[in-house]
Write a structure and sequence with these properties.
mainly alpha, 335 residues, 11 helices, 6-hairpin_glycosidase_sf, Glycosyltransferase, three-stranded antiparallel β-sheet, 10 strands
Length: 335
Amino acid sequence: MARYHFIAENRNARVSTEITGYTVSALLELFDRSCDESYLEAAVRGGDLLVNAWDSRCSAMPFEWSANGELPEHHSYFFDNGIIARALLRLWRTTGLQQYLDMAVCCGESMSRDFVNRRDIHPILTLPGKTPVARDARWSRSSDCYQLKSALAWLDLYEVTGNESFRSEFEWTLERSLQTHAEFFRHEPQKQRIMDRLHSYGYFLEAILAVSERPEVRQALEEGIEREAGYLRAVRHEFERSDANAQLLRVRLWADAQGAVPLNEDAAAQEARWAAAYQMESDDPRLDGGFNFGCREGVLSNYSNPVSTAFCLQALALWHDYKQGLPLADRRSLI
């Protein structure tokens, strides 16, 4: 799946393995809700691409893929590996096909072997040498609490394989994230970049839903939801991402369903409206029904974004379930 579609230029960005992972999870979500086999067939095609994208020469998952192997950069991201592993695990649960579980394990082992160091987690490695890429102020090039969402892959793999090392890696990352998450926004001095931080802080909040029965996690969830909601309302009129609304809405709904944090229904309703406003109508099937990436000072972005679409569709479906009095899906279905 392309990282995004340039609307005005009518072209796709390069194929991203991370975004393909998100897409596989989204297609399986649609299959679970509709029983439409075409969604499952598409998810299998995406899963097969991910299995074939694995670079066996250096035992790593590249962050981009091309049919001829030509790419401008050769990197592997810790975050991408976790998203891909979770997607492949969900595909394995649905199909029972061993190759998806095997590749999920490969990604989880690479996360442990190649990215974890004595102090934290390297965000990016060059391939094939697996040399850490220099870090900078951008959240995606730092080691911080957002990485916990990908560390969920370790917890999921532990539940499937019984391998204690996977559980230990998750617990270590959780402990570190709980210690540092409150400082996450202080690392961004530029107000115009706070919205991007909201997106990545949402990953942390999504991840701790997995252990929301723990008192310290419930406190972090309650504080984090308020922090996320406050920043969102403070900056959205200048720059807003559709996915940030969807992430906060999902966290609110699951935290309430798990008995961790009572739902602020008025705030949730606002976030549902804000997310839904980005859904597009178009004669172009590549755009119709998808979600725009966001809006800056009243002007929609030039990007149709697969991740924004996946997050918004799931959040709005969960909101519909809640309003209808239906039980919410298990948190493992989190895209």
